[in-house]
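hiii so um. not sure if this is the right channel but i have a protein structure encoded as tokens and i wanna go backwards to a sequence. like what aa goes where. can anyone help
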């Protein structure tokens, strides 16, 4: 993670004829201008075995997700995504006016739990959404998730009990993946694909 910062710093200092190398005792600096200092401080603390306080995580979930995504800190990203999706305060602020922004953000940052919360909101408020939300900018691959959320809102059956991966909630998919010792990060589609491949291999 941090090595890439110093590589880009060294590239910026290169000349045509020589390459900068950092030896023992030499100091290299890297400017980090796209992450707030307090967010980066928590990222470093996390990398060295600390944890990010829940109150800070709730208040800064989006910034932490962005930074963890940029520097490929998968576990922190998962924790922040979970916090953002489950924090009651966050879900309560999903409105018809901001639902599309939340959906596009969740899709861009691969926040499966937040995306599911937004889809559930759309399924619950579908009449109002049809009248007020322009879906022209919504990528086509999200329509399947929306249909699943709509179907789930109408069905009493538990998808997990039926073994229907396509209809399972993200938390159920992650639980299955975790039980099998598989990677729990990724889009809903990637998790379903992994489970189906694993089922065929057994």
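sure thing!! here u go:
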């Amino acid at each position: 993670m941090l090595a890439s910062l110093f590589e880009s710093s060294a590239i910026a200092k290169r000349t045509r004829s020589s390459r900068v190398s950092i030896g023992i005792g030499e100091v290299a600096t890297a400017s980090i201008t796209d992450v707030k200092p307090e967010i980066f401080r928590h990222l470093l603390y996390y990398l060295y075995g600390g944890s990010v306080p829940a109150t800070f995580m709730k208040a800064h979930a989006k910034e932490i997700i962005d930074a963890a995504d940029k520097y490929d800190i998968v576990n922190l990203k998962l924790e922040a995504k979970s916090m953002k999706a489950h924090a009651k305060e966050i879900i309560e602020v999903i409105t018809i006016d901001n639902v599309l922004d939340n959906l596009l953000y969740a899709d861009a940052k691969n926040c499966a739990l937040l995306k599911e919360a937004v889809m559930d909101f759309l399924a619950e408020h579908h009449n109002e959404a049809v009248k007020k939300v322009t879906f022209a900018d919504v990528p086509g691959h999200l329509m399947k998730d929306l249909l699943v959320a709509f179907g789930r809102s109408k069905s009493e059956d538990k998808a997990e009990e039926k073994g229907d991966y396509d209809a399972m909630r993200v938390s159920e998919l992650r639980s299955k993946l975790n039980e099998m010792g598989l990677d729990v990060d990724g889009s809903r589609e990637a998790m379903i694909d992994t489970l189906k491949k694993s089922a065929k291999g057994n």
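oh and The CA atoms of residues 1 and 71 lie 6 Å apart.
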